[in-house]
Amino acid sequence: MNKNLAKERFHDMGILTPGGEFIERNTNIPDTVAHFLHDKQLPVIVKPISGGSSVATRIARTNEELIGAIHEANQYGDVLLEEVIIGKEATVCVIDGEQADEYFVLYPIEIIPPDKNSFFDFDAKYGGNSQEICPGRFTLSIHSELRDLAVKAHKAIGARHYSRSDFIISDKGIYILEINTLPGFTEKSLFPLALKAADVSVSDFLDHIIKLSLSGR
Fold it and tell me: What is the pLDDT of residues 52-63, one digit of tens each?
């Protein structure tokens, strides 16, 4: 659940990931912002190092927004600042197979935020304001690359049983944003959507995961 350590593992595996800077909790925020903006430009994404559902994750477009976003994210611990990558959002679910190095990769999901200036934040995820299309409307080559990258990300951090990786498809390539090692299974969650598109029931998926766990995988 440490986004900064995960980024390091992705980088080691040769997976593109947005440039970022780690900020410890309770750092002097005005001084940190002044130092950060000395050689970097806005906008940036501000997010807590740990946690999920994009809680306290914001796009900061001004100095004031950046200071406020860091203050908010600081409530949850250390903070990560990342460059904003423009492109289409996608997420891909990976499930371990019964054999070592065997993976089932579900159809990539295309995510369309409410408007061009927003992203798949907490409100978009749970407020019903975004569109999620599965299979995503990508070319076959993009589908293939997304699935390959999701497996690489899964392996990079030593994920077990299942995971869901979030990507941005940009003109500069496909960037991984984060990996979720415990994706939700609510009515608004994306993993059940991908299972449904693959004609796999949630109960069959759970049976498979339980069998993996009991076998020591």
Answer: 667 788 899 988
pTM value?
0.86
Topology classification of domain 88-214: D-amino Acid Aminotransferase; Chain A, domain 1 (3.30.470)
Pairwise CA distance, residues 67 & 29, whole Å: 7
Nearest to 205 by CA among 173, 160, 170, 162: 162
Give the right CATH number for 19-83 from 3.30.1490.20, 3.30.70.20, 3.40.50.2300, 3.40.640.10: 3.30.1490.20
Q: What is the pLDDT of residues 92-133, one digit of tens each?
A: 999 999 988 999 999 999 999 876 655 545 454 545 668 999
The closest alpha carbon to 94, from 13, 4, 167, belongs to 167
What is the C-alpha to C-alpha distance for residues 169 and 178, in angstroms, rounded to an integer?
Answer: 14
